């Protein structure tokens, strides 16, 4: 749990940024490999990457600002803090919207490329959560369990307190999610199904992990965290999309 991994002169390699970078590279490499495997044009992937990452970061930041709007009203200077504070769901929404816009511009089939990319998104999230663990953000509740982790030099997690390792739990879930989606893709017959499975499975997993989180700055909607509240809608979207695609297949048959 050390975010500053290496310092050379005035340059420091941070664990969080390194894991994000590794995640993006791994996501692009796997998507390119799978594009060739499924006979999709890999030349469009770089554009999807740039649009997806750019609008994903913007969406993640905007949703974070929404969760802390009361604090921003009290101290508008919080808007100037561009380095920290992101909400994954904002990134997912922004990335998917950007992918749709890019598909319209390039006149390619959005659902096919969505199915291609979402397993790689899950893979990138797995590496990103390792970065969260190194930085100490997205930390868990206090626990006396044997698997507890104790941070000693974190700017985010309480130091010297045994916590549930929610970052590693989320990371393991994301990696499993990646392999599951790749397995499902081998049997996919309708464009859009893998994207729907991504939304449904991620939403259910995220909803469950949120019960273990201990960082209160995530925001609340009633008794639910902001991410749990959004999970209800994204899971419903994924489920409805699966049902519609199944009905469409039956109509064709």
**Relative helix content:** 55-70%
Overall geometry comes to globular
Q: Ranges with pLDDT <50 over ≥5 residues?
A: none
Annotation field: number of helices? 8
End-to-end separation? 54 Å
Largest sheet: 2 strands, antiparallel
Q: Whole-number radius of gyration?
A: 19 Å
Descriptive report:
This protein has 253 residues and is mainly alpha-helical. The chain has one domain. The chain contains 8 helices and 6 strands. The chain has helices spanning 15-37, 45-67, 69-74, 88-106, 110-135, 166-185, 193-210, 226-252, and strands spanning 4-8, 11-14, 149-150, 162-163, 220-221, 224-225. The termini are far apart. The mean pLDDT is 88.
Task: Break the fold down into its secondary structure elements and pairings.
Layout: E1 4-8, E2 11-14, H1 15-37, H2 45-67, H3 69-74, H4 88-106, H5 110-135, E3 149-150, E4 162-163, H6 166-185, H7 193-210, E5 220-221, E6 224-225, H8 226-252
Keywords:
mainly alpha, globular, 8 helices, 6 strands, 64% helix, two-stranded antiparallel ribbon, 253 residues
Task: Provide a concise account of the structure shown.
With 253 residues, the protein is mainly α. It has eight helices and six strands, in the order ββαααααββααββα.
């Amino acid at each position: 749990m050390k975010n500053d991994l290496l310092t050379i002169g005035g340059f420091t390699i941070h664990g969080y940024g390194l894991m994000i970078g590794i995640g993006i590279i791994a996501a692009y490499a796997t998507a390119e490999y799978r594009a060739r495997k499924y006979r999709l044009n890999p030349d469009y992937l770089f554009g999807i990457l740039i649009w997806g990452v750019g609008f994903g970061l913007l969406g993640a930041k905007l949703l974070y600002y929404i969760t802390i709007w009361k604090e921003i009203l009290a101290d508008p200077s919080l808007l100037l803090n561009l380095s920290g504070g992101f909400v994954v769901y904002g990134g997912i929404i922004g990335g998917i919207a950007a992918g749709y816009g890019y598909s319209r511009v390039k006149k390619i089939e959005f659902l096919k490329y969505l199915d291609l990319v979402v397993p790689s998104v899950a893979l990138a999230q797995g590496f990103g959560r390792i970065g969260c663990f190194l930085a100490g953000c997205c930390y868990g509740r206090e626990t006396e369990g044997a698997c507890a982790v104790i941070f000693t030099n974190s700017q985010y997690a309480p130091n010297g307190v045994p916590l549930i390792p929610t970052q590693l739990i989320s990371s393991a879930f994301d990696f499993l999610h990646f392999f599951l989606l790749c397995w499902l893709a081998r049997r996919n017959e309708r464009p859009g199904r893998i994207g729907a499975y991504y939304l449904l499975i991620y939403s259910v997993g995220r909803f469950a992990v949120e019960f273990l989180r201990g960082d209160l700055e995530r925001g609340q909607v009633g008794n639910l965290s902001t991410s749990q509240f959004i999970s209800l809608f994204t899971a419903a979207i994924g489920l409805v999309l699966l049902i519609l695609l199944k009905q469409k297949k039956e109509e064709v048959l």
